[in-house]
Design a protein that fits this description.
Elements (H helix, E strand, L loop, with lengths): L1 H21 L10 E8 L6 H9 L5 E8 L1 H10 L8 E5 L1 H9 L9 E6 L1 E6 L18 E4 L5 H12 L8 E4 L2 H9 L5 E5 H4 L6 E5 L9 E7 L6 H11 L2 H9 L3 E2 L6 H30 L1
Parallel strand pairs: 1-2, 1-3, 6-7, 6-8
Antiparallel strand pairs: 3-10, 4-10, 4-11, 5-8, 5-9
């Protein structure tokens, strides 16, 4: 009797399982339509590559990108001067996103930090100028940076100057965004410029990285995105915004020189690392003692 009961129970469970499988809802409707994105100028080359990857699984979704200085784009969104409703804002620096969030323009739960970048001091490819420190910029006639009033790269550059003790001592030329600074350097209009490392890598035949400043001389350069409340295509916007933080998208960004945001260490992780560290320390100590004993013997 017990055996028959068990068999009946197993059979019922299997049947119930098939019932659950058969009762699964139909797949969600196919995503489609245009997604309007306002993005930092430094994403000009890489974001379309990520979009192309996304379209392999979502061929009915199209993208309309507007690139520029993150501060300028945020101002346009707040003022409502953008010609089309913007679905996603992809910014460098937290400040433009903070402004939009304070103005209630973002869907808060969609905001995410995605990437890191670094600064690079670049010179024209044919330049013979040697730069081995930030202070070496003092020897140059003209140095280009993004206008710090609305270009985050310019703000980071000013932090770099301040922490290097050369604020107010350079003849600066302001660019409208980081790509404008890149153009000023590649055209030999200025002696050097400060851009993101990823921008410097886009013109290897026209500019070169003369010096990479220590990252402790400026704030972390963080790229983040969010879906805007004004979106007219919320399903596709939310889905692509999530895709921006996926491993597939991060792989594309990394090829271009960006780096992913380091995952925070959890308490459990910290404890685990501590235990592993203690075990390694004990192993090293044990080996040292063994070597000492062997030498004595």
């Amino acid at each position: 009797m017990k055996t028959r009961y068990k068999l009946a129970l197993v059979t019922a469970s299997i049947a119930l399982g098939f019932g659950v499988i058969q009762a699964k809802p139909a797949q969600a409707a196919t995503l489609s339509g245009p997604v309007y994105i306002y993005a930092a100028a430094s994403l000009t080359d890489t974001l379309p590559q990520v979009e192309a990857l996304y379209k392999q699984s979502n061929p009915d979704v199209s993208f309309v990108n507007t690139f520029g200085a993150s501060g300028t784009l945020a101002t346009q969104i707040i003022a409502g001067t953008n010609p089309n409703p913007v679905d996603i804002f992809f910014s460098v620096s937290q400040a433009p996103l903070d402004r939009l969030q304070a103005a209630n323009k973002l869907i808060p739960e969609t905001r995410q930090d995605i990437l890191n970048n670094t600064l690079a001091i670049i010179t024209p490819i044919n330049s013979t100028i040697s730069i081995s420190s930030v202070q070496d910029l003092l020897q140059l006639n003209k140095v280009a940076i993004g206008n710090p009033a609305f270009v985050p790269a310019g703000v980071f550059a000013q932090q770099l100057f301040a922490n290097s003790g050369i604020s107010g001592q350079l003849n600066l030329v302001f660019g409208s965004d980081v790509r404008d600074v890149l153009s000023l350097v590649s055209s030999n209009t200025v002696d050097a410029g400060i851009v993101y490392t990823t921008d410097a890598l886009t013109l290897p035949n026209q500019v070169k990285i003369a010096y990479t400043p220590p990252i402790n001389l400026y704030s972390p350069i963080v790229y983040g995105s969010a879906v805007l409340r004004q979106t007219q295509n919320p399903d596709a916007a939310r889905d692509f915004n999530s895709f921006l933080g996926s491993s597939q998208a991060l792989g594309v960004f990394q090829v271009s020189g960006f780096s992913p945001i380091p995952e925070p260490m959890t308490t459990g992780g910290s404890i685990a690392v501590g235990i592993v560290g203690l075990m390694m320390k004990r192993k090293v100590t044990a080996k040292a003692k063994a070597r000492t004993k062997a030498a004595v013997d």
